[in-house]
Write a structure and sequence with these properties.
548 residues; mainly alpha; Serine Threonine Protein Phosphatase 5, Tetratricopeptide repeat; 0% strand
Length: 548
């Protein structure tokens, strides 16, 4: 800074101290540009200057008018001098900004931790009811900052619907019941601010029944009209942190609805099946088993969900019926996989061994987890050579896009004392393992997810990778290993921790350590409230907790 600029800044400070507001605003048109800049910044944080700045903004001098408008914008949006120096004033002409321009402006405000920034974010969400700018604003409102609850509570009575709903969302995401009550009033009145779904999502994340009930009404109404329910609604009710029989029944009705050739029937049924695999119980297993018998080829997926939920007795019956209906002479590899998986789950080793021998004689199925049924069956029987022969055939067919079978082939080659180096192994199979872990209805052999996750953790002991390994141990029935693995993530922060908690709860429950299960469940709920995220494993955890 030059001596002249230093003297100018000192003069400005003196004028401000003396209350010479007119002189300060007049300096927006000073001869030296640095003085104009300093004057503009000196106006910030001084709301009493607004009348003078408004007059200057309509004056004949274009530069004074622009600087006055800039300062007014900062005052309106609570942008102080430090933030203005760092990020400028992206909201000078807020009403004329495009969505892209507004989103760029939001980025500068999101770095500021003052509660006043919430006004900017709420206005952004209000300006654009849909789109990236609104999503970015609402997402940032979830991040707690010092004093934001008090700021939001003071605005619950606002006459502006968007401000009122936005304030209620902030409180709800902080697990403050005042927010939930305000949101329920908005939901009942049909207030569209930020959209009905944002309100419902916040209530569901809090575990408030009002959000879930609203979705259940929508699903029931659609089924009554013979219209496929919204698949996203079905996924949300399946993941709601409230375990109820109503959810299970609504998903069954959505699955069994008579939609004819209506568009969207397929996605709705798939979403309903996906949800039932998480929150269904013996009732679902029985209904799906009966439903499957009507058309085994078209409803094979329903059978796999039933199998994922059924007890040993029901699994034996399902395995026998599947062998009779799907295991004929012309059975495809995929049909035989379903039979083999059911026999494995039912514990019928002799029948399972015979079925995988039949699979091995055919072309391998396209899905790697299905081909792994044969390979892992042979490896568990102490036949690594047979496993390697089958895996080599599958790899030649190109049935291994992500390298899961290559990992098994390498292991089989080592066990068979042959060269394992020709099988290219990936360093990270976390996504593939997690896909299997979170979709038990795939009926994939649990040893596959365990091997994928163990290899990944060995290469990179990332928190998320360790979480996947703990979940894989749970699916394999190795509950002690699951608990020991997941306990290492207990006190650390990372994305997805609520899922770790859920698998810990389920492992403790299966071990009969009920007190530990409930202790971790409390932590799980606390974390869900803190992160304001829906826990995709919540429904299954509730189901396991209800097990006798």
């Amino acid at each position: 800074m030059t001596c002249l600029a230093t003297l100018a800044f000192a003069a400005l400070a003196l004028a401000a101290c003396a209350g010479d507001d007119e002189a300060l605003v007049a300096r927006l048109g000073a001869d030296e540009w640095r003085e104009r800049e300093e004057a503009m910044l000196a106006c910030l944080g001084r709301p009493q200057l607004k009348p003078l700045l408004e007059a200057a903004a309509t004056g004949a001098d274009a530069e004074i008018a622009w600087r006055a408008r800039w300062a007014l914008g900062c005052l309106d949006w609570n942008i102080d001098a430090p933030l203005a120096k760092r990020a400028g004033n992206p909201f000078e002409n807020f009403a004329t900004l495009t969505e892209d321009e507004l989103q760029m402006g939001l980025q500068s405000v999101m770095n500021d931790q003052r509660p006043e920034r919430l006004a900017v974010l709420l206005q952004a969400a209000k300006r654009f009811p849909e789109g990236p700018a609104r999503d970015a604003a609402l997402a940032d409102l979830r991040t707690p900052v010092a004093g934001d609850s008090a700021w939001a509570a003071a605005r619950l009575a606002s006459e502006d619907p968007a401000t009122r709903t936005g304030a209620a969302l902030i409180l709800a995401w902080r697990n403050d019941k005042r927010g939930a009550e305000a949101l329920k009033k908005d939901l009942a009145s049909g207030n569209p601010a930020f959209g009905k779904q944002a309100v419902i999502d916040a209530l569901i994340a809090m575990g408030d029944p009002a959000g879930l009930e609203s979705l259940l009404v929508s699903v029931r109404d659609a089924v009554k009209r013979n219209a496929p329910p919204d698949p996203e609604d079905l996924r949300k009710i399946a993941q709601a942190p409230i375990g109820t029989a109503e959810v299970e029944e609504a998903l069954l009705q959505a699955l069994e609805g008579d939609y004819g050739a209506a568009a969207g029937a397929g996605p709705s049924r798939s979403a309903a099946l996906e949800g039932l695999a998480r929150c269904g119980g013996p009732k679902t297993a029985a209904r799906l088993a009966a439903w499957w018998e009507g058309d085994p080829d078209a409803r094979d997926e329903a059978l796999t969900v039933a199998a994922a939920l059924a007890d040993k007795g029901a699994l034996n019956v399902l395995a026998q019926k599947a062998a009779a209906k799907l295991g004929g002479e012309k059975a495809t590899p995929d049909q035989l996989f379903t039979v083999a998986a059911l026999q494995r789950l039912a514990g019928d080793k002799d029948a399972h061994r015979a079925t995988i021998d039949r699979m091995a004689a055919l072309e391998p199925p396209a899905a790697p987890e299905r081909a792994a049924e044969v390979a892992l069956g042979y490896m568990d029987d102490g036949k690594p050579g047979d496993a390697l022969e089958y895996l080599t055939k599958a790899l030649k067919k190109g049935a291994d896009p992500n390298g899961e079978l290559a990992l098994l082939a390498s292991e089989a080659a080592k066990a068979a004392k042959t060269d394992a180096r020709k099988f290219p192994i990936m360093p990270n199979y976390n996504n593939e393992a997690w896909e299997l872990v979170t979709h038990p209805e795939k009926l994939a052999p649990p040893g596959l997810a365990v091997r994928l996750a163990e290899h990944t953790v060995k290469m990179d002991e990332d928190l998320a990778h360790r979480g996947t390994l703990g979940a894989s141990y749970f699916r394999a029935g190795r509950y002690e290993d699951s608990v020991k693995t997941l306990e290492q993530n207990l006190e650390t922060y990372y994305f997805g921790k609520e899922e770790d908690f859920a698998f810990m709860v389920m492992s403790y429950k299966r071990l009969g350590r009920i007190e530990d299960a409930h202790r971790i469940e409390v932590k799980c709920r606390e974390w869900e409230a803190k992160s304001a995220k829906v826990n995709p494993m919540r429904a299954e955890m509730e189901r396991v907790l209800r097990e006798p």
